[in-house]
Amino acid sequence: MIRKCFANWHSTKLHLRNFVRILIQPNSVALPAGRSGLSFFAIKPTDATAMDLSDMRKKYKGDEECFEEDQLVSLDPIKQFGNWFDEATKCPDVGEANAMCIATCTKEGLPSARMVLLKGFSDEGFRFFTNYESRKGKELESNPFACLVFYWEPLNKQVRIEGPVERIPYQSSCDYFHSRPKSSQIGAVVSRQSTVVPNREYLRQKNRELEEKYKDEEVPMPDYWGGYIVKPQMIEFWQGQTNRLHDRIVFVKPKDGEVGPGEMQHQGEGGWVYYRQSP
Fold first, then answer.
1. Under CATH, domain 75-175+228-276 is a member of which superfamily?
2. Catalytic residue numbers?
3. Partners of 266 in the beta sheet?
């Protein structure tokens, strides 16, 4: 009897030990199933190279919280963007309201995308800064169009902006460059963005050299760095709905002779028209 109890206790200890290891290192241990004790903790290691995500979904807004045309705070999409952007900056769950994805494309149609920070917007357009010799800089040089996407997940809201891109004046770039922390200025000089480097220590060494060089003087803005402005021709406001009947209100600036969706479009302000698109 004592021997049997000891054997059961020994088996239970093994199960508990394995369970603790799972808590510390998920997916590292598979408990034996079909045996007495803690067999209901049986875990199958996850194959990170092949995952079925078909059941991965979250709740968005309900129909009672839908985004209707009469809820637009302005018929000028720049002002409407400002309203949503202000909401995002005040939301404690939005980490960086000005983080946006910018998509560019080669002349041959090969796209690329990355996250950058919006540094200003106005009736003229949306401004950001980068290295002119980076991949996006080269693509914008040969194909000066871009798409911006802001996604504020806690608000279930997204804004998409499309339009041609231009470099901003040199002095405007220079003024912004010298408004940045000195460490960021030096970082912009160190990084010949998108070029291949041997290792991180190479960048650290370059950074140390420039910190010493410019410790008592102004960092000159490199000629390969500066700002762009995206001049919007289309701005879409999207709000998610749990039943996937998402709200999409689109503003466009028709060119001379362009025909919109007819009677389903509405006149906005400043040459803009707007309409609802099917989700």
1. Electron Transport, Fmn-binding Protein; Chain A (2.30.110.10)
2. 244
3. 274
